[in-house]
Write a structure and sequence with these properties.
Layout: E1 24-29, H1 35-50, E2 55-60, H2 67-73, H3 75-83, H4 85-94, H5 103-114, H6 117-125, E3 130-133, H7 136-147, E4 155-158, E5 175-178, H8 181-192, E6 204-206, H9 221-227, E7 236-240, H10 249-257, E8 264-268, H11 273-280, E9 289-293, H12 299-305, E10 308-311, H13 315-323, E11 328-331, H14 337-347, E12 351-354, H15 360-369, H16 371-384, H17 389-402
Parallel strand pairs: 1-2, 1-3, 3-4, 4-5, 5-6, 7-8, 7-10, 8-9, 10-11, 11-12
């Protein structure tokens, strides 16, 4: 069990609990998948560079609840995606309204508050200067504490998908960080709805989704291929199988292996050891070279090396692929947020989508044979990329610490 007080980076609280001269910042994520946590880590690193003397605490909100709630909220979501994806999509649309409206919303938030008493104490008993939320659950809890005047420090919300879902919209909030100009327009319209005057758009920043800056580095593709000992004489297909085992991993891999043209196939299974074992033991045509990897810290190199990545369009995965200019083949998106991410990618020419896995072999093979189309997709991805998002979020948050902006 995680202790009540997290491990801080930088200056710790004064013995009397008073505020010191150096800022104290808490970053709140939630380990529902890895994207929210990875975004928080990227912001934490960027803030550490801009404010080296600050106290920065990155807290996974689910670590400050009970085991039953943590399992239901995290693992329960992924079980629902596997067993009832259409229901998950329906719920996503049903809940798509601002987080402070409706009896059902208030009942849900009451249930969540009862399971987050330790998180409430963390926020109310420490003299924070700023909170940054990369998940809507702690953002909603914090906004309620502020409405009740139990805490007074400002906070920012960082959206980790390419569209704006209503559950991210909380009041009061000094800053929203979104991925695209369309998301900004959507959010501004929702915030202004029902209010006497329009919301000042300066409360919303278009930064992109925070990712590790290595994804936007200057690594040459040839060097990335060499560093990972990949075959440079054939197309390189990267399959992201996901650490949570969602989707038809083996069927997708078999479809890739059925392509006639010799390929270099790299599969990243994360911490899903079962998937790694299953794929390793699978029969495949020897014309292909295969590398089956588990967890890796070289994803930025693999995306840079790949001709195409076959994946689900999670927010962080999408942002990382765009930053490396890697065209995407979308397979089995999670209904709801990943469907909307896919829409963004398709509208901007960065991806193709496989609606039925029986056509994956044909669609991927056709794409790999069309070098001009791959080049256009790579260029489109680079146009949409925002590899400096983490730094931009951090810089804007430093401004929040220096002045009191207008509240939403």
């Amino acid at each position: 069990m995680m202790p009540m007080t997290p491990n801080f980076h930088g200056q710790t609280a004064d013995p009397d609990g008073s505020r010191g001269a150096k800022p104290r910042i808490v970053i709140l994520s939630a380990s529902v998948g890895s994207g929210h946590v990875r975004a928080a880590q990227a912001i934490e690193a960027a803030l550490g560079e801009l404010l080296p003397d600050a106290t920065i605490a990155h807290v996974d909100a689910l670590d400050l609840t009970n085991g039953a709630f943590r399992r239901a909220y995290g693992a329960g979501y992924f079980r629902a995606v596997q067993r009832a994806p259409r229901f998950v999509g329906w719920m996503y649309d049903f809940l798509d309204h601002p987080n402070d409206r409706g009896a059902a919303t208030h009942a849900r938030q009451l249930f969540e508050r009862l399971n987050f008493t330790r998180l409430t104490r963390l926020l109310t008993e420490h003299p924070w200067d700023l909170a940054i939320c990369t998940h809507f659950l702690p953002a909603a809890l914090l906004a309620r504490l502020r409405r009740r005047e139990l805490v007074q420090f400002p906070h920012a919300v960082v959206l980790t998908d390419f569209d704006v879902h209503g559950m991210w919209i909380t009041r009061p909030c000094e800053r929203f960080f979104v991925a695209t100009e369309e998301a900004k327009a959507n959010l501004a319209a929702q915030l202004a709805e029902g209010k006497a005057s329009a919301v000042e758009e300066r409360t919303i920043r278009v930064t992109g989704i925070p990712i590790d800056p290595r994804f936007g580095g200057a690594l040459d593709r040839g060097e990335a291929i060499a560093r990972n000992e990949l075959a440079a004489d054939r197309p390189i297909v990267l399959q992201l199988a996901g650490g949570f085992g969602i989707g038809s991993i083996e069927r997708i891999h078999r479809s890739i292996c059925q392509i006639e043209r010799p390929l270099q196939i790299v599969v990243v299974t994360g911490r899903n050891s079962g998937a790694a074992e299953a794929l390793t033991s699978m029969d495949h045509n020897p014309r292909h070279r295969r590398n089956i990897l588990g967890y890796t810290t070289r994803m930025h190199e693999l995306l840079r090396a790949a001709d195409v990545v076959v994946t689900k369009p999670g927010g962080l995965t999408t942002a990382e692929s765009l930053a490396t200019g890697c065209p995407m083949v979308i397979a089995e998106p999670i209904p709801g947020q990943e469907d909307r991410n896919a829409d963004f990618l398709l509208e901007n020419g960065c991806a193709i989508k496989v609606n039925n896995l029986s056509s994956l072999t044909y669609k991927l093979s056709s794409l790999l044979e069309d070098s001009a189309r791959l080049a256009r997709m790579r260029a489109a991805a680079m146009r949409c990329a925002r590899p400096g998002a983490a730094h931009d979020v951090a810089a804007s948050c430093v401004q929040l610490l220096q002045r009191q902006p207008v509240l939403v």
